[in-house]
Amino acid sequence: MTSEKQKMLAGELYRPGDAEIQADAEANKRWLARYNSALDASRETRRALLLEHFGSVGTGVAIRPPFFCDFGFNIAVGDNVFMNFNCVILDVTRVTIGADTQIGPAVQILTADHPRDPGQRRAGLEFGRPVVIGANVWIGAAALILPGVTVGDDAVIGAGSVVTRDVPAGATVVGNPTRVVPARTLAV
């Protein structure tokens, strides 16, 4: 028999009120309180907290509190990832963030989704779709990455953008919903 948590992790329809899922959510709330109170703590202290809770954490990772997530154990971040203040990751299933990615303040990365069928919604069912963000990606402030999106390596997502579909490697996308625009180059 498959548990509700196993269904959640597999991206299948599940019941979020399940006791095991709720226990994980409560443990995450306690961890978030500790992490978010560590704003003035050393980078090493915050790294230790991340290692204790995330699925995997590369070297040189900096996630500025306050930070918010559903569970934490579904998040994997590569080396040198930087995430600014007030970011949210709804990680009912896997979120992978590649090395050297920079994420602006108030960015939201969402895997949680809801059935389109009204009967399933009324029954309280939910599901998730994984999000994969490649290496060396720059995500501007207040961007929103929706469930199931893959962002290719070296992509740029403009501030305030709503990413509803995959972003090709090296592309620059802006808007709501995002559209690919020519990359801007700065003279040095």
TrEMBL record:
Domain Maltose/galactoside acetyltransferase: 5-59
Pfam families reported for this sequence: Hexapep, Mac
Keywords for the protein's UniProt record, in alphabetical order: Acyltransferase, Repeat, Transferase
Keyword DNA-binding: no
Highest rank taxon of the organism: Bacteria
Entries under InterPro entries matching the protein: Hexapep (IPR001451), Hexapep_transf_CS (IPR018357), Hexapeptide_acetyltransf (IPR051159), Mac_dom (IPR024688), Trimer_LpxA-like_sf (IPR011004)
The protein's name: Maltose O-acetyltransferase
